[in-house]
């Protein structure tokens, strides 16, 4: 029905016949029209009100758009290669083994100076002990056969004493176990015992030298020459490469290893004996033998265990030849061991509360993403460091909420730091929800 028609109908309904009075039919029609109008208005207002209520309910309860994360990548630090303080005097060869995940199965080899043959002085006694024990091995926990010293053995004391060699008492007719005789030869470096024990083992000097040549050839020690068992002759020579192998053979022999690690001992006959290796116990040194034929010829065949703070200690075997003095050589060896120890070092990775990103919301709230704790990793030399980051969306956006982690790896070592929200993202106000339907719809 058009608007003019409706207006006409209303006019007809409300027109009063002055002569006849109110028409009942007209009044009923008027009432029906009013009801229809009221119903229409009510429906329209109800729909409008329902729409408003529905919108308000939806706006106040609609899921909020997720905060937007803005992050930057952390970088793994670069590492510096270890610097080893090799002795400046003479020649040196060192083998460092252990921690194969870092150093490899063969370890690290360090050298300084040339590999020419040099006089080895009393280090010769280590070779003498190896050759004697090769022919007369001593089982672990045993002391070996018994030696009885003759008048000829006793006379060796004076023979070496007048040559200014180290000696120890050897009374005629006295007896001693092979282990104790070797201890007297190695700990105070008694030359008369080296001569007597080598002759006992093979029957004569020439037989001992023949056995020594065979042993050296079998072990591939072609740069080593031994002409007598004590080292008093400058013609007893070896190369750093050979001596490194000799040190490893000696360290692998339980009898020699235990004797060389003994600072002092008291035995019947020779009495109280003090080890010539004054480095024992310093810097991890556990052996093996000193030697010298005067200024500029000081030598040290050494073993050491170096604690690095990572797994088992490193095993170090080394030799240094041609030192000017015992003091300078000992100091150089300790510096070298310290530098090997420093090859394992702590690398700083990140400081506590390092900012790596932020979260922002459509309603203007924000929070930061930080690495919660400081981290460092202990590694060897220039072992590369890698990192991985695992970040998930926060669920509460509350201060301190963990949202992931960063893990650094260097060889077999790894360390992890938590990623946390710093600051709290508060929800928007109701007014913001009601006035930002587009943001709620995404």
Summarize the structure.
This protein is an alpha+beta fold. The protein is 36% helix and 25% strand.
Give me the Rg, rounded.
47 Å
Shape verdict:
rod-shaped
What is the CATH C-level name of the largest domain? Alpha Beta
Side-by-side strand order of the widest sheet: 1-14-15-19-18-17
Low-confidence region ranges: none
Strand content: 25-35%
Question: Average pLDDT, to the nearest integer?
Answer: 90
What's the end-to-end separation, in Å?
Answer: 44 Å
According to CATH, the homologous superfamily of the largest domain is DD-peptidase/beta-lactamase superfamily
Biggest β-sheet: count, sense, barrel?
A: 6 strands, antiparallel
Tally of DSSP β-strands: 19
Q: What is the count of helical runs?
A: 13
- Second rung of CATH, namely the architecture of the largest domain: 3-Layer(aba) Sandwich
Task: Briefly note the CATH topology name of the largest domain.
Answer: Beta-lactamase
Structural class: alpha+beta
What number of structural domains do the residues give?
3
Q: Fraction of residues in helices?
A: 25-40%
Could you explain the architecture of this structure?
The protein has helices spanning 3-14, 24-61, 100-103, 124-135, 151-161, 178-186, 191-202, 205-218, 240-252, 254-260, 326-341, 430-435, 437-441; strands spanning 68-71, 91-97, 108-112, 118-119, 146-148, 175-177, 237-238, 264-267, 271-274, 285-291, 298-306, 314-323, 344-350, 354-360, 366-371, 375-380, 385-391, 402-410, 413-422. It is of the alpha+beta class and 442 residues long. It folds into three domains: 3-61; 68-79 and 347-441, Peptidoglycan synthesis regulatory factor (PBP3), Domain 2, CATH 2.60.410; 91-342, DD-peptidase/beta-lactamase superfamily (Beta-lactamase, 3-Layer(aba) Sandwich). Strand 8 and strand 9 (271-274) form a beta hairpin.
């Amino acid at each position: 029905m058009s608007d003019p028609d409706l207006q006409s109908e209303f006019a007809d309904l409300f027109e009063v016949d002055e002569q006849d009075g109110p028409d009942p039919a007209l009044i009923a029609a008027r009432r029906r029209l009013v009801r229809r109008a009221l119903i229409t208005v009510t429906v329209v207002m109800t729909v409008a009100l329902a729409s408003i209520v529905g919108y308000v309910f939806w706006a106040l309860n609609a899921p909020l758009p997720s905060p937007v994360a803005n992050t930057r990548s952390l970088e793994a630090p670069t590492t510096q290669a270890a610097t080893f303080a090799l002795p400046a005097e003479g020649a040196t060869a060192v083998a460092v083994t252990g921690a194969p995940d870092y150093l490899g199965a063969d370890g690290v080899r360090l050298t300084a100076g040339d590999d020419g043959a040099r006089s080895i002085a009393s280090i010769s006694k280590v070779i003498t002990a190896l050759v004697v024990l090769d022919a007369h091995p001593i089982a672990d926990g045993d002391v070996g056969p018994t030696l009885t010293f003759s008048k000829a053995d006793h006379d060796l004391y004076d023979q070496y004493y007048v040559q200014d060699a180290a000696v120890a008492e050897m009374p005629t007719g006295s007896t001693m176990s092979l282990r104790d005789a070797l201890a007297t030869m190695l700990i105070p470096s008694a030359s008369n015992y080296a001569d007597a024990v080598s002759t006992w083992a093979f029957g004569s000097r020439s037989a001992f030298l023949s056995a020594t040549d065979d042993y050296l050839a079998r072990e591939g020690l072609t740069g080593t020459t031994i002409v007598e068992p004590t080292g008093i002759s400058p013609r007893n020579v070896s190369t750093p490469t050979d001596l490194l192998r000799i040190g490893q053979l000696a360290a692998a022999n339980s009898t020699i290893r235990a004797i060389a690690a003994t600072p002092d001992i008291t035995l019947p006959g020779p009495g109280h004996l003090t080890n010539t290796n004054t480095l024992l116990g310093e810097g991890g040194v556990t052996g093996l033998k000193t030697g010298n034929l005067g200024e500029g010829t000081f030598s040290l065949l050494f073993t050491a265990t170096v604690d690095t703070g990572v797994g088992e200690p490193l095993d170090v075997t080394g030799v240094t030849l041609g030192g000017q003095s015992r003091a300078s050589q000992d100091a150089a060896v300790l510096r070298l061991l310290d530098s090997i120890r420093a090859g394992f070092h702590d690398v700083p990775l990140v400081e506590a509360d390092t900012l790596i990103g932020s979260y922002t919301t459509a309603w203007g709230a924000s929070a930061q993403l930080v690495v919660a704790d400081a981290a460092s990793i202990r590694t060897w030399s220039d072992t590369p460091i890698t990192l991985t980051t695992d970040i998930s969306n926060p669920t509460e956006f509350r201060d301190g909420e963990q949202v992931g982690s960063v893990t650094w790896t260097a060889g077999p070592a790894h360390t992890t730091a938590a990623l946390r929200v710093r600051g709290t993202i508060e929800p928007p106000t109701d007014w913001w929800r009601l006035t930002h339907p587009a943001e709620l719809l995404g």
